[in-house]
Amino acid sequence: MELAQLVIEALVFIFPAYCANAIPVVAGGGLPLDFGRKFIDGKPIFGKNKTVRGFFSGLVVGTAVGLVESVFFNYPVPFGGLLLSLGALFGDLTGAFTKRRLGLSPGDSLPVVDQVDFIIGAILFSLPLYLQMLTWELAITVSIVTPPIHLLTNFVAYKLGLKGNPW
Question: Rounded to two decimals, what is the model's pTM?
Fold first, then answer.
């Protein structure tokens, strides 16, 4: 498969996860997903930036994008966007949980983890449905193209005043 075609296929495949991960920046806020509770180490479970509204807005938008893609690209499973979105959101929560254990505050940077946690989650959650479609080349391409895209979109969100930091 030609490189350009592989990159396009990877971006189309992972786009619902990108949307699920990005929408909470715009639509989030409100009640923290961990309800302000602390883990056994006395630190927040996820932190104040992971909210109920953000989680569910990401899930709804990512799933809707996946449904639209299933129509336009004739994906075999119309609810793949749901699994990609759930995986992205749980991957991001895993990253937040890890950052809290390391003593990092919400919004602090943890390079590499910040750029790939949601992608790892999305790929793992989508494996059961997309096993025939998700080749190792596609997964690697997603993993390579995502960090610079993530950094760029976060910088733009920061410049637009949607985020408090550029990462």
Answer: 0.93
Angle between helix axes 3-27 and 80-101 (nearest 10 degrees) is 70
Separation of first and last alpha carbons in the chain:
33
Q: What is the pLDDT of residue 167?
A: 84
Give the alpha-carbon dihedral of 130, 135, 69, 162, to 10 degrees: 110
For 29, phi then psi, to 5°, come to 105, 170
CA angle 138, 93, 132 (to 5 degrees): 25
Q: Each residue of 44-84: pLDDT tens digit?
A: 999 999 999 999 999 999 999 999 999 998 876 678 899 99
* Helix, coil or strand: residue 24: helix
In whole angstroms, how far apart are CA 31 and each of 6, 52, 129, 134?
40, 6, 32, 36
Distance separating alpha carbons of residues 84 and 151, to the nearest angstrom? 20
Distance CA(105)–CA(3), nearest Å, equals 39
Q: For the chain, what are the domain ranges?
A: 3-159
